[in-house]
Amino acid sequence: MAKQAALGRGLEALLGPDTGAVVPRPERKGPAVEEKTLSGVSEISLDTIETNPDQPRKHFDTEALQELVESIKNLGVIQPITVREIRPERYQILSGERRFRAAKTAGLATIPAFVRSTDDDDVLLIALTENIQREDLDAIEIALCYKRLMDECSFTQEQVSKRVGKKRGTVANYLRLLEQPAEVQAAIRERKIMMGHARAIAGLTKPESQLKILRKTLDENLSVRQVENLVQRAQQPPVARKAEPDRPMPEDYRHLTDTLKHYFNTTVAVKRSDNGSGSITIRFAGDEEVRVFLTRLQTIQQNQH
Q: Could you list the active site residues?
């Protein structure tokens, strides 16, 4: 059974029942015909959802999926999936199967989802395009609209940019936000950081580096410029430390090395620290050479007696 999800102010404005296009359900037996919000987000029971057998993606990376599971346990599902109703209270995934699988593994009972009909492309296009123009939406909400235009209306980035009157680069920047770690997306949704912060953080390729900058940004309330400077410094290759010149080895150590080389006829290395401690390394090529070493040591011991 689908129920309307509790949403933040921005997403409620974008996807709530007072702004989305309303499409009647197919007529059913009963006293009245129920209506649904085309672009609304609902919390849907995972038990009522099935995967799409025509989904071209059959393999899901186990490690990446487990990372998503842990993220969902901590933060919930940041990006709703999209489903279509195939029969009363039964749904099939149109996009988001990876999130669906991760949510089940994480032990969730429901998942946020866009519920749509398969024959409402024109209405969906109008509703999404109009809602994108709202001023109270955060960057993730806008990015989700752009992604839905691409996924559900088969638009390219160029077509999306023309439809919403934005440069293609702008659309690409918003879509790139959806590739950020869930913690970064959540910070945008909660308006703890702005899109400028997120764009700067996206300059780093490793998630652990992105999260390190995010935490510093939140802890110190950094400006976008300060975050950009941090990212620039993080991208610079580390400065190689100059090797310290080798200190001359005391005469006794050189004599020890020469003596061991003479007896064992192999490479011998002696390392000594400033406080006098160190190690002696004797190289050997195989078991036979070790046996030769032992024979020579035994000979030395016998000569001493």
A: 97
